[in-house]
Design brief:
mainly alpha
Amino acid sequence: MNAKRILLIGCGWGLVFGILNGMSNIFLLPSAPFISIRPQIALPMVVGILSHPLAGFLVGFTGNIVGDGISGFGLCQFWNWHLANGLMGFFPGLIRYMGIVRIGTVREFGILEMSVILASGVSVAFAVLLDVLFLHVMKFPSSFPSWILPAFLTDAVNGFILVPVILILARRILMTLETRTILLVTTLLLSAVLITAGAITGSVLDDLASREAMIETVYTAGIVSLVMLIVGFIASILFVRKFTDPVTRLTQAAEMVETGSYDLRQLDQISTRKDELGQLSRVFQKMARNVEDREKHLLLQVQELQIKIDRKRQAQEVAEIVDTEYFRELKKKAQQFRAS
């Protein structure tokens, strides 16, 4: 993609992102003076994935400038957060350089989701580092629950949920057995974590002595929920891969048999299993060997038949030649020549 197109896409979607930021900045999080619930953070991430990492960076960078200007925060007051929002669009776009353009496996889906969470964490950490080195706006440790933690939690959770949804609508997530299974498991996991965290938090709010304690409890529940979500997601990937990988290998083996390749040693490991997949693999390997043997036997029979046909045709052609008047005259002349 050329630089002009990257610039147009980045600035165009950046304007949209900025307007959405300006609208959402009305709804600031409790105790967070500048942090709002931003579902639109998925936009620079998606643009980075679909178009180019630099386009994603421009969406986040220019959009945050526009949003701060609309909200009255000033265009350059929080320039470190402009860069951080740019990085949130840049990092997920790097999966393109891992060969991931269309997502059709559990591995690719896992890389996508982890890139979103990594982008959120690294970007917020980068903004905090720049503030410590140059701006000195944040006050520690009070800024951690009022600024850093809310920014990371909202961006990570919103990106984790919305980026796959948008990619499904854009048809960049292929509906294979692997992706359908991991999407279902992830949805159930996310629902369970959020409902559990909400229920536990709601049950203790009435017992808290102050508003500060309430806010601290909410954010603590948020970070615990995110950790549980990440750990559960990694466990889900391992589980789903263990379930879908044998099916994928069996499908590939069927395609190999269709093209005439019967070397199915790739199924040896699956055939050692004691479950239904192992039985299916053993039956499939046996069937493939039988088909290969029959094909070889049939080929041998065809070759033998071809040889017989060729010999019969050759004998017939010789007989036709011998039976001609020209051959009899030639034979008679040869006998006369030997007798003279």
